[in-house]
Write a structure and sequence with these properties.
Elements (H helix, E strand, L loop, with lengths): L9 E4 L3 H13 L6 E4 L5 H10 L2 E3 L10 E4 L6 H5 L11 E4 L6 H8 L3 E6 L9 E7 L5 H12 L2 E5 L5 H10 L1 H18 L4 H20 L5 H7 L6 H9 L5 H20 L1
Parallel strand pairs: 1-2, 1-4, 2-3, 4-5, 5-6, 7-8
Antiparallel strand pairs: 6-7
Helix pairs in contact: 6-11, 7-8
């Protein structure tokens, strides 16, 4: 993996939730302040504070005196087309482009920026606290060095998983991109079931929330896979086994997830055009 301190001429376009999280991770990880340029017409107060404290260059529009070696696109998909039209001053044939915009294929960027080394990624919202999962695909123009630099930059906000086909990004989107919402909904469902069992609503939510957070921490610190951890807490004939008999029934949770992820994957393909 490349050293963050060796990154040069890194241009971040868009410093919203995801872009801001990456910027904070880069600064904390050791990217030199003078190597970073942020382009954002209206950064949040927290990002303004970070820019002021660190002395990172900030522009409301692409400047004409910088050529990006790495260009990270972190603007909303619905305004991407307008932003791309302004980027000519900061890119050349040697620029590595990294997109974190959902639903935008590499063909979309190639048609607007030309044939450049490009990486398409799909991060998820835990990236905002440095615990994200980021799916990534590189086109054929990305060198091994370029891939290592991208991996290092993306690792500042989470776990990076590379796929060999761009089409796999849709399945990645269905699992990890949208996945945090499934975990949050699981907490909601557990809490609602607890309320129906007679518990106070707020108590049920605290129990469900704490259990899911704790289970995640246990899995994170264990070498065992999820199935083994599940079996470890399941005593034959016990309460957990009784619950899992329902969840693992033929019409239980697995077919629900099959349908849900298929729907998410199909929608990702539709959005990508």
């Amino acid at each position: 993996m490349a050293d963050l301190g060796e990154i040069e001429e890194l241009v971040l376009v868009g410093a919203g939730n995801m872009g801001g999280a990456m910027l904070s991770g880069w600064v904390a990880g050791g990217v030199r302040r003078e190597a970073i340029t942020v382009i954002d017409p209206n950064p949040s107060n927290s990002i303004k504070s970070l820019l002021d404290r660190s002395g990172i260059r900030h522009h409301v529009a692409p400047p004409d005196n910088i050529k990006a070696k790495i260009l990270v696109l972190a603007v909303k998909p619905q305004v991407m087309y307008a932003v791309l039209d302004t980027l000519a001053p900061v890119i050349d044939e040697n620029t590595l482009v990294i997109s974190v915009a959902a639903g935008k294929t590499l063909t979309y960027f190639e048609e607007r920026l030309g044939k450049l080394a490009m990486i398409r990624t799909i991060p998820n919202t835990p990236s905002m606290v440095g615990r994200g999962v980021i799916g990534a695909f590189a086109n054929g123009l990305v060198t091994e060095v370029g891939r290592e630099k991208a991996d290092t930059l993306l690792s500042a906000v989470g776990q990076v998983e590379w796929v060999e086909k761009e089409a796999d990004i849709d399945a990645v989107t269905a699992i990890s991109g949208s996945g945090p919402a499934y975990a949050f909904y699981l907490v909601e469902c557990m809490a609602e079931a607890g309320r129906k069992l007679g518990l106070d609503e707020e108590l049920a939510m605290r129990l469900a929330r704490g259990t899911v957070i704790g289970a995640g921490a246990l899995m994170d610190g264990s070498k065992d896979d999820a199935g083994t951890l599940r079996k470890n807490v399941t005593s034959p004939g016990g309460t957990t086994a009784a619950a899992l008999e329902q969840l693992m029934a033929e019409d239980g949770l697995q077919p629900v997830f099959d349908r849900a992820l298929e729907a998410a994957c199909n929608r990702s393909r539709e959005l990508a055009g």
